Hints:
The chain has helices at residues 2-10, 12-35, 48-61, 72-76, 95-107, 112-138, 141-153, 155-160, 167-187, 198-213, 217-238, 252-288, 291-295, 308-324, 376-396, 399-411, 432-448, 452-481, 487-491; strands spanning 349-353, 366-370, 485-486. The protein is mostly helical. Strands 1-2-3 form a 3-stranded antiparallel beta sheet. It is globular and about 65 Å long. The protein starts with a helix and ends in a 9-residue tail after the last helix.
Amino acid sequence: MNALLNRVLFDQKSRAAFGRVSFWLVIALAAFLRLFNLGYPSKLVFDETYYVKDAWTLWNTGAERSWPQNADAAFESGHTNGWLADGSFVVHPPLGKWIIGFGMWLFGAQNSFSWRIMVALLSIASVALLMVIAKQLFKSNLWSLVAGFLLAVDGHAIVLGRTALLDGILMFFALLGFYFVLKDQATRDVEALTWRRPWLVYAGLALGAATAVKWSGLYFLAAFGLYVVISDALARRRAKEPKFQTPEIADLAPDLASFSLAWLLSRFVRPLIVFLLMVPIAAVTYLVSWTGWLTSTGGYDRDSNSNPFLALLKYHQDAYNFHVNLHTPHPYASNPLTWLFDIRPTSFFYEGLGFGQTGCAAQDGCSSAITPLGNPFIWLPAAAAVFFLTYLLVTRRDKLAGTILIGIAGGYVPWLAFMNRTVFQFYSIAFLPWMILALVYALSLFIRSRNALQRTNAIRGVLTYLVVVAAASLFFLPIWIGTWIPYWYWHIHMWIPSWI
């Protein structure tokens, strides 16, 4: 075993071969966990009652339509065209629903598999994308595989990858935007004042798409844009850009003119270029997602003004007022302060059977549950890693720590301003990849900080940790995918009362 471990970890050819095969093994694992029995339950789960039906009317009419009361049962039984003529007031942009609707168009809206397939595919793609990002950040195939493995087997990611909600789609586009930003940072010329930064354009496109799924994509756009501006400024400083030195009076004029131009370019023009490369393309992407509503008739607020763009503006005002005034009590609402620790997961689905009912052989009954509860052996260490990286950034100005934390800044920090709003733990899927990157970075530092004699034991410790993670995921898997289990077995998964 030791010989095999040493060969995989330290032999260059073995590591390369292992990296090529293991990348696809992680993808296959993620795919299995997201696609296995994806059509169960053949019922609309939690907010699927909105997004699935909205997606289908959007795909067929160009805008979301209202449905009769208690329409879910008819829709679930295959009667999927029972929408009304009236437009439906929805408070999220259309792109995520267009994506869900595409799967329904491909496989038939009467098939519950079709409701979820596009979200599942994007969730699988997110695992692959995270591995590519981790490889770019850590320069290591092994650590990229660890990152992908943790996202592949985490319950929060699995459930959000098997449910037709918008948040997993938001995560994918935010992660894609982050990838493009990293590519820009790797290829930029900090000395040249140039518009030739195509990766920023791609980032604007991806983050515009994120915003077109949910408005919280704007936070990622702002965070990543500020990161690029600040990173550019720091890179120029490290490149020892000439600074103003007080000259003799006789030489002041030409030097001052040169300094003033350089100062102006550095402080204003360069950030303006970043803004113009990212924000307009994001805005156009967002607007294009509304094409169906703009070009159709009967959508909510569509006829409020003869100018469709003014009508769209009114729609946005109505949606904004809804969001800021959303204080409706909900039994599974959770304070954003608790999100990093996964204290109050949202119950998406629960059904129970009594003894002898439909084959239930357990004396105290049987349960089928779908709960986006994160693997606690991932979430708690990852939360600790976020604080550790914050410490590294503040005390040591660790660049990599700062790069990873920008995803937390865009995906999590803004929600701290909405602690009195009705919000839910599952929103945290949007920034989960960066929590995992923080954890992977902390693990890598743990191994790198060991001396040669200690390193092998440190590696064994990390491998043991990954085995524990895998075992915990196997244990929790039934309550992530809705497997029918005895009630007592469901209950032993509820380690703390707030998980129930």
